[in-house]
Amino acid sequence: MSKQLIPGVAFLVIGENIHTTRTLARTGRHLVTLDGGQAGIAYTDAAGVARIMPLAEPIAASSDFMAGRVKHVRNAVLLGMAAAGFADAGLAGPPSAAAADAATAYLVHLADRQVQAGADWLDVNVDEVAGDLDVRITAMEWVVGVLEAAREVTVPIALDSSSSEVLKAGLAASTHPHGRLLLNSASLERPDVLDLAAAHGCPVVIGAAGEDSLPTTADARVTNTHRILTKASRLGIPLADCHLDPLVMPAGVDPEAGAAFLDAARRIRVAYGPDLHITGGLSNVSFGLPGRRLLNDVFLLRAMEAGVDSGIIDPVAADSGRIMRFDRTSPAFMLAEDLLLGRDAYGMEYLTAYRAGLLADALA
Questions:
Q1: How far apart are CA 143 and CA 296, in angstroms?
Q2: Contact by Cβ (8 Å): 84, 124
Q3: Could you list the residue range(s) of the whole structural domain that residue 325 is in?
Q4: For the chain, percent of residues with pLDDT exceeding 70
Q5: 39-44 and 50-54 beta bridge pairing
Q6: 331-340 vs 348-355: helix axis angle to the nearest 10?
Q7: In what helix (H) or strand (E) does residue 332 lie, and over which residues does it extend?
Q8: Beta-strand relationship, 69-70 and 24-25
Q9: Which residue of 54, 192, 290, 323 shows the fewest CB atoms closer than 10 Å?
Q10: What's the CA gap between 248 and 278, in Å, rounded?
Q11: Which residues contact 137 (CB under 8 A, 6 or more apart)?
Q12: Is residue 129 situated within a structural domain?
């Protein structure tokens, strides 16, 4: 299905939004108050029906909720697991049938939107559903079952977890109705995920992290890439099954992060040719900064030009038409690019323009 964000250039999309860290603003348009004062999330399901998913007790009483953030995916997973009979889901009691159905339909709704927008895989991460490993294992099994049973889901799942045990549970739960799963992610710190990929014949996201630290320079990213891809090759994993992630860091924290990623991507593409996929959590670059859509669009464009042909992104938000209409001589584009490439350290000029309303047209 490969989305074409630049005409004629295939780009593999790992849809990122079925992730228990994802939040909605408590004051946002999707949050509603139900009879009796309980909060809920309003949405339109895959069949076009207006629905409301109530908030479970652990979500409504959480510090995130008090701080104005609602972990909506975590909420759906907790309600769905409890309804399926998992007492360790953290709820005081089983939810109503209507609440459980709304929660399951909500996950399908999120998946459907990403599939319709061009996702090639649906990245599923349940690591923040609970602190207990057994609960996370159960959650991954349940979510995989729900999504693979939904007729709206026509692409495979990308299993994403910091725990290899959770990845194994997802692999065991899957019936592979839409092709091979993707594993996210292996690294020099997590070489066992390469073993899983080799054993199951899965494509795999491979991070350029070191054994005990994250790279800060392009050189370190490239060196780590050579080492981890050598391990993958020795295990018989084809280069075409490798999605190498040179690691995107927030430009607001490290002014050199964007340029280092792009430089590493260019060098890796030259070294390994067209078979290797180069990927990354591209929206990480704008973390903590205002006007994230503008920054993400500019970085995505620059990343593709550097040889990146895969991304862990929200395909609903990545509008190819908007990206291609960029006027690269516009002040907004140049301010965003200067921040991303380290020419505007910590975005001082960008932030000044944002606060003065000078980026309003680009953000509309």
A1: 28
A2: no
A3: 3-20+118-363
A4: 96
A5: antiparallel
A6: 140
A7: helix 331-340
A8: antiparallel
A9: 192
A10: 12
A11: 165, 166, 169
A12: yes
For residue 342, being part of any structural domain is answered with yes
Whether residue 272 is contained in a domain is answered as: yes
Tokens of 135: 């609960």
For residues 79 and 108, give the distance between their C-alpha atoms in angstroms, rounded to a whole number: 14
Q: Which of 347, 348, 353 is nearest to 331 (CA)?
A: 353
The C-alpha angle with vertex 153 and arms to 152 and 154, in degrees rounded to 5, equals: 110
Per the model's pLDDT, the better-predicted residue between 326 and 267 turns out to be 267
Query: Which CATH number characterizes residue 203's domain?
Result: 3.20.20.20
Name the token pair of 106.
């909500």
**For residue 320, pLDDT beyond 80:** no
Q: In terms of Cα–Cα distance, which of 76, 82, 83 is closest to 20?
A: 76
Q: Checking DSSP bridges between strand 121-125 and strand 157-160, what pairing results, if any?
A: parallel
Asked whether the bond before 283 is cis by omega within 30 degrees of 0, the reply is: no
CA-to-CA separations, 95 to 60, 82, 85, 135, in angstroms, rounded? 14, 7, 10, 18
> In degrees rounded to 5, what are phi and psi of residue 123?
-75, 120
Q: Please report whether residue 69 resides in a domain.
A: no
In the chain, the N- to C-terminal Cα span, in Å, equals: 28
If one compares 90 and 13, the residue with the highest pLDDT of the two is 13
What does the pLDDT look like over 46-67, one tens digit per residue? 999 999 999 998 899 999 999 9
CA 158 to chain centre: 10
CA distances from 360 to 2, 336, 344 (A): 31, 13, 19
What is the C-alpha to C-alpha distance for residues 155 and 120, in angstroms, rounded to an integer? 6
pLDDT digit string (tens) for 212-245? 999 999 999 999 999 999 999 999 999 999 999 9
How would you classify the pairing of strands 242-245 and 277-278? parallel
Please state, rounded to an integer, the average pLDDT across all residues of the chain: 94
CA atoms of 250 and 239, how far apart (whole Å): 28
Total domain count for the chain? 1
What pLDDT was estimated at residue 1?
Answer: 42
Among 280, 274, 276, which Cα is nearest to 299's? 280
- Reported as a pLDDT band with limits 50, 70 and 90, residue 312 is very high
